[in-house]
Recover the amino acids of this structure.
């Protein structure tokens, strides 16, 4: 049997392209298995390469709040830290006057006010967008009622014209009345067409209003994040820059809930020790400060990321994006592990160089195994569709041509060229060449082909 199979494959490889309509019969002793062409649901996926990203609220940069020296670095890259845990101990000689301190706090406060203003504006736009959508829906309902009335008037005018024609033929009424009825019918017809056109235009505008609301919702979320970030920056800087005697002037204690370490002193050049703390619980993913290093105010010294939830960003081609839907199930594979989630975002802009569109998913990552900037494999499930299918093993190929053997009964089989579509598990979609209920050979087709040739 092994030598016969090898001989059959050799014959296929050496032969020319299959002839459409060629037939063969099953040789004695050859078991041929067939399957019916059936209509079933098709489940397919889009496969992409993605990259893990930290979420906006789950990534915090640590900066030196004042000029000074890093006395001790208390953690390492990869260390897990709690919210409020010291990361670096610093020693700073305050050289700022109380007026400069207050000016810095005022700037941070201005940032908070500005962020709240942007949030208020975004909320107002969202409210206006929702009101506009409501008005547009009311307009569609009114136009729909107008169209029904216009169609009723048109039907009455049509009936009136027919009745007047019959009365004119019977000599009961004058032709003038018929002409007046025909004029009313023409006007009713024009009004009906105008109402239908106006209704279609109004309905086409509804998706635009809904898209605007979606954009306003995104703007609100971004503004809310900006408010949280600016408030966090203000509280942090107020805590670090307050509660100590600076150049002999006390900043009121009620400006802060965090005090610096060390003894207070009225001397302007008094060295003050304090800690730079992690504002969130997470993992130290970056650390650039070293013991004894002089740091300027605002210098980035590290990063802490909370990785219980992460983004997975990928780029999909335009043809694939057309099939994607928000909420579609996704599967992410990395280092032999599988993570499941939902499609959260589909971009609106096409990258002019790659001709791709950004998509994003949010995944639970309780063990923190998905690390930022790691490349992963992403599979996005597409909506199910219905179509004719056959087992993939029934499809024979030669170059770009695909065909199958059709069971004609009584041990006879005929070759037929087919066109296939998406694959769904062990089945493949048939776009052309086969009809539902026909049977195709799934086992023994190679030997039948070799025998026929």
């Amino acid at each position: 049997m092994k030598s016969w199979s090898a001989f059959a494959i050799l014959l296929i490889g050496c032969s020319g392209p299959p002839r459409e309509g060629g037939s063969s019969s099953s040789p004695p002793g050859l078991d041929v298995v067939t399957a019916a062409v059936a209509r079933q649901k098709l489940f397919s996926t889009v496969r992409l390469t993605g990259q893990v990203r930290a979420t906006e609220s789950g990534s915090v940069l640590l900066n030196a709040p004042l000029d000074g020296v890093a006395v001790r670095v208390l953690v390492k890259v990869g260390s897990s830290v709690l919210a409020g845990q010291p990361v670096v101990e610093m020693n700073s000689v305050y050289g700022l006057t109380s007026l400069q301190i207050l000016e810095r706090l005022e700037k941070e406060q201005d940032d908070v006010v500005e962020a709240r203003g942007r949030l208020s504006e975004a909320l107002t736009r969202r409210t206006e967008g929702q009101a506009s959508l409501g008005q547009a829906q009311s307009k569609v309902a009114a136009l729909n009622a107008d169209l029904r009335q216009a169609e009723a008037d048109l039907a009455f005018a049509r009936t009136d014209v027919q009745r007047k024609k019959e009365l004119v033929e019977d000599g009961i009424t004058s032709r003038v009345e018929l002409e007046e009825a025909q004029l009313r019918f023409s006007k009713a017809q024009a009004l009906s067409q105008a109402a239908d056109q106006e209704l279609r235009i109004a309905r086409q505008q509804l998706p635009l209003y809904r898209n605007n609301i979606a954009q306003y919702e995104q703007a609100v979320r971004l503004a809310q994040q900006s408010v949280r970030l600016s408030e966090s920056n203000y509280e942090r800087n107020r805590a670090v820059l307050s509660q100590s005697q600076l150049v002999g002037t006390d900043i009121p204690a009620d400006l802060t809930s965090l005090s610096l370490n060390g003894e207070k002193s009225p001397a302007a050049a008094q060295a003050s020790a304090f800690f730079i703390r992690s504002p969130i619980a997470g993992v130290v993913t970056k650390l650039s400060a070293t013991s004894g290093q002089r740091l300027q105010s605002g210098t980035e010294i590290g990063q802490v990321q909370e990785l219980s939830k992460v983004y997975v960003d990928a780029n999909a081609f335009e043809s694939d994006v057309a099939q994607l839907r928000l909420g579609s199930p996704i599967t992410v594979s990395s280092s032999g592990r599988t993570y499941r989630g939902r499609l959260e975002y589909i971009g609106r802009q096409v990258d002019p160089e790659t001709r791709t569109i950004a998509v994003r998913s949010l995944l639970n990552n309780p063990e923190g195994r998905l690390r930022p900037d790691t490349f992963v494999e992403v599979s996005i499930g597409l909506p199910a569709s219905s179509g004719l299918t056959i087992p993939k093993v029934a499809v024979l190929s030669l170059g770009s041509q695909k065909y199958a053997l059709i069971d004609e009964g009584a041990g006879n089989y005929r070759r037929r060229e087919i066109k296939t579509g998406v694959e769904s598990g062990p089945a493949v979609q048939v776009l052309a060449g086969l009809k539902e209920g026909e049977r195709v050979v799934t086992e023994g087709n190679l030997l039948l082909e070799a025998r026929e040739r």
